[in-house]
Design brief:
Strand 7 and strand 8 (about 305-310) form a beta hairpin. The two termini are about 50 Å apart. This protein is of the alpha+beta class. Strands 1-30-2-3-6-7-8-9-16-17-21 form an 11-stranded mixed β-sheet, with helices on one face. Strands 4, 5, 22, 23, 24, 25, 26, 27, 28 and 29 form a 10-stranded mixed β-sheet that branches. It is globular and about 85 Å long.
Length: about 800
């Protein structure tokens, strides 16, 4: 979105020339914009004194005498540490990025306005409990109190030349919608099914998508171009706003106290999302007379979303439930405001949106850009998303649970923090609408699992491809009743594992999804736990750390067996094959075999699928057709009836063995180019790295080196220590998706209770802060910090004093 921006290109040109002369000024500004963590500050909006104690890693402990003041302090802290992140998240959710970034952000704004995220959040406000509303109001007052007290803003505000507006409670509530958008990917799955069904035979489609069906979508434009326009939105969301991705998920598991060394249950969790700096997550402890809670907050929300209180602890993974459906609509050619429904024309709900667009840099010397007015149309199924994308063809509407106007999802997370037992935990999560989540639970004696969120019950089909919206038989009939949602409490085996793997199965009465992640991660976690249990070993926190660090890819084993059939033609191939013959599937950063396997399997995908997919293959990493799982690749190689290996673009008849051998040659050639000709010096870490991208400066030459952070890494998309990567020309494989944090939790008496954590970047979003990136290296090494009283840094205490308690002289 920003690479082709004349606004930013000119910005850099104008910035670099005078940079030397203003360097001292800029550095001074950066220093003064960094955080002040100690002393007294007088504020209006709090009821009583609040103390904020920081530890050595800048993790705050809020000590307040009321919950209201806790939530106020959360708003203040998020603004103090993550103000630019707050601003960009709010502008994304409201479709107002173009006001700052210019026309390059226009596609994102049009898309979000069409979805109506902010409007949906506004409509949900009255459905919240009074207590939940009060928490959001208190949080907004805290953010605004910081803005009132601080004139030196983070450097991004200086560089783009604007100041943030006052924060509103809905600005926070809409972040739940953004969180749901991050975890809801099924509409893109339908689009890809649509594409595959036009170029593949039925057996091939069924192998990839797991169900027989027929896409009813037809386009009056070039299909590849049409799909590219749809996927361009996905590219913008993922690359620039770090929203969504393939199998966004997590790992979470709970171990019963009967299997642990100190007889108390243990919970481990590491949610997976797009990689960014600063992290989506913010570590915090909250203490008031009503409750004490610690864990990970989502920036923009006053709550600890994932963590523990004095009674229970919880973690989550994305369920990957299919909560989105696309519908083909029939529009009245004589009246475009009408759509067909069961033989009758109905009026759409329409609204006009005005998008203001910043002029190109320098704005004072550039011609103003007229505001863009768009008309958003909505049928009974949902917004017409095709209106947001020029040249798509047939009108498409989107039905999505997160657009429900009576959405109580925020209340679910709010009440979760106060839950004291399994029943109260269930009661809280019954309020969740979207995103759908696998909830993993422990208390001092028990472990449990609960599927939470609204899962549609469909009249026809399983939501795999678009249906006719004009027939009500194709619509949703409701959602799975909360009493029928999957759950488990104290299973006999003594542990629970969730890693985005399939749940429900054939015995379950309802359809959940067909978009499951590979079972490899879940199987590996279970394997490691069972190995310990079988040897009568009592599980410890150290065992949980070891599992979270694991880089064995079980999905590689079957494919590896096929690769080992190949005989080398030369010494280089023989040496490469020798490395793989003794390899156990460990995607360790120091492994030669891991590098070879990853690149070889990539080349195999290209050679066996690219010809069938035609132009779709070149649409980029955003389309999972080019990201087919290892088990599917093995099936394509093993099942000759599917006829994947023969290249349909040549007159020859290629065998799978010849294709795999050719892929080996290409892999070696690519690795030589990346790492040199000495195979013994190849490692996976040399060409595979984590890139913590910054929004928006990752796309700007020079500034990317200042704001981004890169570090070599191991793992793959199917290892417990997960890493999804894409190839960057001349750079290697850049991880764009992985764990955002790790936590290991155990309840008990104060000496037994444990909260180990590591955030992926640092607590601060300010480039001048020492806490901008101080967790990057320990996170990469799978190390942990502890949340406890002894970690509080001496002298780092900020005292918030209500203005009402000050004398007139003190206030003056």
């Amino acid at each position: 979105m920003f690479k082709s921006s004349p606004l930013l290109k000119r910005f850099i040109v104008f910035l670099i020339i005078p940079l030397i002369t203003v360097l001292m000024y800029v550095w001074n500004y950066l220093q003064t914009s960094a955080e002040n963590f100690s002393g007294d500050i007088v504020l209006s909006g709090i009821h009583q004194e609040v103390q904020i104690q920081r530890d050595a890693h800048s993790v705050p402990s809020i000590i307040a005498k009321s919950d209201h003041d806790v939530y106020f302090a959360m708003g203040f802290l998020h603004a103090q540490d993550r103000l630019w992140q707050l601003e960009t998240q709010r502008r994304f959710a409201k479709g107002r990025l173009s006001e700052v970034f210019g026309r390059t952000a226009l596609e994102s704004d049009i898309w979000v306005r069409t979805l109506g995220l902010y409007k949906s959040a506004e409509e949900s406000w009255d459905s919240l409990s009074t207590e939940a509303q009060d928490s959001l109001i208190a949080y907004s007052h805290g953010v605004n109190a910081f803005l009132d007290k601080n004139t030196n803003l983070p450097p991004e505000f200086l560089m783009f030349g604007f100041k943030p507006e006052k924060w509103k409670p809905i600005d926070s509530l809409v972040q739940i919608k953004v969180f749901a958008l991050n975890l809801s990917d099924s509409m893109w799955h339908e689009i890809e099914y649509m594409a595959a069904s036009q170029v593949l035979n039925t057996a091939q489609v069924n192998m990839l998508f797991g169900e027989n069906g027929h896409s009813l979508y037809t386009s009056n434009t070039n299909t590849v171009n049409s799909l590219d326009k749809l996927l361009k939105i996905k590219r913008v969301l993922k690359d620039e706003m770090h929203i969504g991705g393939k199998y966004v998920g997590s790992n979470a598991w709970a171990v019963s106290g009967k299997l642990s060394a100190n007889n108390k249950p243990i919970l481990a969790n590491d949610p997976h999302l797009n990689i960014q700096i600063p992290s989506l997550w913010y570590v915090v402890k909250q203490k008031s007379p009503k409750h004490e809670i610690s864990g990970m907050s989502l920036v923009g929300l006053p709550l600890v979303v994932l963590g523990k209180n004095a009674h229970i602890a919880w973690g989550v993974t994305s369920m990957l439930a299919d909560e989105q459906d696309l519908y083909i609509e029939q529009i009245n050619p004589k009246r475009p405001s009408q759509y067909l429904s069961d033989g009758k024309w109905k009026e759409m709900i329409t609204r006009e949106e005005t998008i203001n667009i910043k002029a190109d840099f320098p704005a004072k010397l550039s011609r103003n850009i007229e505001p863009l007015k768009i008309k958003v149309r909505k049928t009974e199924n949902g917004p017409l998303i095709s209106d947001a994308i020029e040249g798509v063809g047939n009108p498409l509407s989107l039905r999505w649970t997160a657009l429900k106007s009576q959405d109580t999802s925020y209340d679910a997370f709010f009440k979760l923090g106060y839950a004291k037992n399994w029943k109260e935990f269930n009661d809280a999560m019954s309020l969740l609408v979207s995103p759908t989540l696998n909830m993993v639970y422990i208390d001092q004696d028990n472990i449990g699992y609960l599927a939470a969120g609204d899962i549609p019950i469909r009249g026809v089909g399983n939501g795999l491809y678009p249906l006719e919206g004009w027939h009500s038989k194709n619509h949703w009939y409701g959602v799975i009743p909360k009493t029928d949602m999957l759950s488990e409490f104290n299973p006999e085996r003594g542990f629970i594992v969730s890693a985005n793997n399939e749940i429900g199965g054939d015995d379950y009465d309802y359809y959940i999804s067909s978009q499951w992640a590979s079972p490899a991660r879940a199987a590996r976690i279970e394997e490691l736990l069972q190995e310990k249990i079988d040897t009568k070993h009592k599980l410890t926190l150290e065992d949980m750390k070891m599992i979270q660090a694991d880089t064995i890819d079980l999905s590689s084993i079957s494919l590896l067996s096929f690769f080992r059939r190949i005989k080398g033609d030369n010494s280089n191939e023989d040496l490469a094959l020798a490395h793989l013959n003794s390899w156990d599937g460990n995607m360790d950063r120091d492994s030669t075999a891991a590098a070879l396997f990853y690149v070889w399997s990539e080349q195999v995908r290209n050679l066996i699928f690219k010809d069938e997919f035609k132009g779709y293959w070149n649409l980029g990493n955003e389309i999972s057709l080019a990201n087919i799982e290892n088990d599917k690749v093995f099936e394509a190689l093993s099942n000759t009836e599917l006829n994947w290996c023969d290249n349909i673009l040549t007159n020859d008849l290629e065998s799978c063995d010849s294709i795999v051998h050719e892929a080996l040659k290409q892999a070696i050639k690519k690795l030589v180019k990346l790492q040199g000709s000495d195979i013994s010096q190849w490692t996976w870490g040399n060409i595979h790295y984590t890139n913590y991208g910054h929004q928006p400066f990752s796309s700007v030459n020079f500034l990317d080196y200042i704001f981004e952070r890169k570090i070599q890494n191991g793992g793959s998309e199917n290892t417990v220590n997960v890493s999804s990567a894409m190839f960057k020309q001349g750079k290697g494989y850049e991880q764009y998706f992985g764990a955002g944090f790790r936590q290991i939790l155990q309840l008990g008496e104060s000496k037994q209770a444990t909260h180990l954590y590591m955030n992926s970047t640092g607590q601060s979003g300010n480039i001048a802060s020492e806490h901008y990136d101080d967790m990057v290296e320990p996170f990469n090494k799978v190390q942990y910090f502890g949340l406890n009283k002894s970690s509080i840094k001496s002298g780092e205490t900020l005292r918030m004093v209500p203005i009402s308690s000050m004398s007139t002289e003190e206030v003056k």
